[in-house]
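Example record used in the benchmark description.
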Amino acid sequence: MTATHSTRMLILGSGPAGLSAAIYGARAGMAPIVVQGIQPGGQLTTTTDVENYPGFREVIQGPWLMEEMQAQAEHVGAQMMWDTIVEVDLSQRPFRLVGDGGHVYLGDTLVIATGAQAKWLGLDSEQKLRGQGVSACATCDGFFFRGKKVAVIGGGNTAVEEALYLTNHSHDVTLIHRRDTLRAEKILQERLFKHHGVKVLWNTEVEEFVGGEGNEGLVALNLKDTRTGESSRLDVHGGFVAIGHHPATELFQGHLELDADHYIEVEPGTTRTSVPGVFACGDVMDKIYRQAITAAGTGCMAALDAERYLAEADFEAEEAVAAE
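Model output (structure tokens):
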């Protein structure tokens, strides 16, 4: 049986951004509803060791951190809904969203925290060794490969930036690109080519991520020359796939302004989108940092922006009534 749920603050997504918005929104008395989506807890639920989230001297587990965030949000008054939104109407307030089971959600404000997913090569071995030497985030995981051989796969800005970042931890970084020229900005290419700690393998693609014995994790990459078909092997302990991200914005095409890469555009320094009362936070609007801590920070911003928006709307409504 379907039902209609109404709230002052409706939040889509339950990663660090969405749950931080829920915590601040609940403490402000907005009784937020969080629609958790197809991956409750966000990308951190697929991350094992987390060593860079402030407040924990020891390594913590990503799923545990998200469980604690959700428990905190519920403790202060946020309501969690296990549903996936399939339809949105942002043309009037309250905003109207519909779940895949027919439930209707009405929100005086809407906070979008649907995140982004890393693009992967699609290899079985890649999935098998994710978290065991294979990663899509050098900033997140590079620290674990101090003094070890690593490789970055890709040819755009992200790949070059990650290769350069990894030189902080490794003196043996290889950038693997399937073409003979990079797509990265010229200034990044110049920095890369001048850096003695990075080698580039041109016209090369990864055919397989090779695991070691037992729990050893990644030990090598099986490669293929895209021109000759010749096979080779590169011994590495870390393989970073850097071929881009997919922001989860399909629902909002035609409803909100998106940039050329389909991320939600926000007013600089805020989380305000092109529709008043709709706010975006976390990786769905941040293509640069993509960290749990920055997502949580923008979640806080979205809740505060939503609270101020409602306060102004309520004041204007009261003034209008008084003027009658």
